[in-house]
Amino acid sequence: MTQDKQHSLLNRGEDACNVLKKHIDNKDIIRIISHNDADGISAAGVIAKAIKEEDGQFHVSLIPRLKIDTIKELHNEQYELFVFCDMGSAYIDEINRLKKDVIVADHHQPSKTKEEEHVTHVNPHLFEIDGSKDLSGSGSSYLCVKPMNKKHLAILALVGAFGDMQYNNGFTGVNEIILKDAINSGKLEVFKHLKIVSKDQEPLFKSLAYTLNPPLTGLTGDLEASQEFLEKMGVSYGIKFNDLEDEEKDILKDELVKINPEICSDLFYVAQESPAIRSLEDFSSILDACGKNKKTGLGFSIAIGERGNALDAAITQLNTYRSHLMKGFQWIRREGAVEKEDIQYLYSEDNKLKTIIGTLAGVGLSIDLFNPKKPVIGLSRFQKDIKISGRTTREMVKKGVDLGKALDATSRSFGGQGGGHDIAAGAMIPYDSKDNFLNLVDDMIKDQLNKNNRS
Ligand SMILES: [Mn+2]
Fold first, then answer.
1. How do the domains of the chain map onto residue ranges?
2. For 268-313, how does the pLDDT look when each residue is reduced to its tens digit (9 = 90+)?
3. Which residues form the DHHA1 domain (predicted)?
4. Rounded distance, CA 298 to CA 313, Å?
5. How much distance in Å is there from the Cα of 132 to the middle of ligand 1?
């Protein structure tokens, strides 16, 4: 059954590939519109790189979210093929009205409208495949180029999957098929190793503090504690991991495994790449940092293969992002979250914290910075609006918490909008409704927990 569904999805990718090839052959400039996060940048990269390799041309825009107005504006653009990556499935109605060929390569919940003949819709949900963990936006995009013999681009699709946090101690579903292609390209190796970040760039204590996934309780987000930890075991903290003596590496490994056994697991490694992006997770962090610091063009250039100065500039973005993160964790360790009855929240107007509050909430929960029994709601102010990022634990989801539903319903009652998954969700609400919103979310989570108790 599963295989049938996967097969149908792969066929849909082939349909999209035929449309793409037709327009490359016609020498049309192909219009790509994608999301500005790590998955979206990788998705645009997969399509653009394939076009480039086939001697075609493209024009790409990376945007924070697709709006109806954005699609309306495309009516004025003179292109013969539009490709939406990592977005578009919720707007098939509007997209149908574009009277040119369209490919939608997305993995978010699609709208109920059926696509018209000029629209090729590649989305796992259409085939009852879970788009939150089994295929990313860059994965859907990869399926549209896979038939052109582009196995090496499967690597970039995995970078996007890491960006969307679809790796959970392994890849599942269609992501597994993509992983096989990546390995078969001969460029990707997978082996067990210490999964601390930037082993060849940063002094060891920073590598530990910067490692978010798997989380290292007591070390993640804390430069001082990481330094002390290494000093205590007599391992040189100021040099890079890759420069340690083998003996030191062994000591370190033993101690880190005690904190989190998952720290020693599969590393996805491309030996011929530049050191900073040899690990696909490091690659994904760099694209993520470019997106969050509004340097999407830079991120995209790395995705399609630019290195040298561009990569140096992208690494600078990563460093900036990480220094913001460290400040954020410091802030949380100092102030903590404000607890209500059934939720807790973080609120900041600080420019540096705005874009990272969701990460702080999620990682903070995983390293015990918050009460695990209450979902964390991060709020950051953007002029007249507040951006909401909610995170909770698997355990609370089992007890009935569904943040996606809670944030969707509550934000709508204040004229905002929201949604997402049970464990992680987001919303946008007017600034004035902040306090009422928090009270309502608190009530709603209480209801969810009560209902679950009774059933
Ligand atoms: Mn995505």
1. 2-187, 192-328, 336-454
2. 999 999 999 999 999 999 999 999 999 999 999 999 999 999 999 9
3. 370-446
4. 8
5. 8
